[in-house]
Amino acid sequence: MGTSFVIVGANGRMGRTLCDLIGQEPDLSLVGAVDTPEHVADVSLRMVGKCPVSDSLENLLARVPKESVIIDFTSPAVSMASARLACAKHFPLVIGTTGLTREQISELESLATTNPLFWSSNMSIGINAIRKILPDLAQALGADYDMEIMEIHHRHKKDSPSGTALTLGKTLAEARGWDIDKVRCSKRDGIIGERKDEEIGIQALRGGDVVGVHTVYFMGPGERIEITHHAHSRENFARGAIRAGIWLTEQKPGKLYSVADMLS
Q1: Rg of the chain (C-alpha set)
Q2: Which of these is catalytic: 39, 157, 229, 255?
Q3: Mind listing the pLDDT tens digit for each residue in 144-179?
Q4: Omega into 161 within 30° of 0, i.e. cis?
């Protein structure tokens, strides 16, 4: 038996991609689509004969199979509301939303003790493979190598730096025994003095329709190492989220799962 999905934010860029990909797979079922009242008519036109559409996740969940997986790539506030409702109604939930605060992530961790929850700032398998090797590089190269991150996204992205860049920065900071909130530098302007030894620059560029580019720099005496990941389409992230949803149906509550858990 295949996996059934409910997509929150079905009219968004990621929502449309998810709906299209699920519809192409014979072993997957799209059983519900949710969006805001002003967009639900557009979603309904696209979903004629495919699945129920609603502006209320709570109302929709009463009409879908209990084993359905919810996927939410919307905004922090909406995703948190989805998480609370999913846990109350006992539906597994995959969140791909970025820009969550520490307090919101802490709440997700608490909710995950009673219901299967999955959250990642980036669903790309490639990005998460890079995350796995960064601590080894940071430790092998040592303190003589400064670490910086640059990210590029489309002009419509609302949060900055990207959630992925912050996650990569946190990975680097932990490898050096630092607190990312204390060493992150995302603004350099004017006469600011020399770069600090304990600092990780995380800078953002915005423009056009760039899906996502992240580069990690290790800059040392006489050489520079660059690791760059280019996301060519949103399908990369959507496929990762679908894979996470299928995987999540076989997991028990107990922790807030991530791509790292899925890969291991």
Answers
A1: 20
A2: 157
A3: 999 999 999 999 998 999 989 999 999 999 999 999
A4: yes
pTM of this structure = 0.81
Assign domain 3-119+234-263 to a CATH class. Answer: alpha beta
Domain boundaries, the chain: 3-119+234-263, 125-231
* Distance in angstroms (rounded) separating the CA atoms of residues 69 and 141: 42
Strand ranges inside 106-222, DSSP E:
117-119, 146-153, 184-185, 200-206, 212-220
Q: Is 153 a catalytic residue?
A: yes
Question: Could you tell me which CATH class the domain 125-231 is placed in?
Answer: alpha beta
Single-letter code of the amino acid located at 1: M
- Cβ atoms of residues 65 and 4 within 8 Å: yes
Catalytic residue among 153, 170, 214, 229: 153
Distance CA 35, CA 71 (A): 12
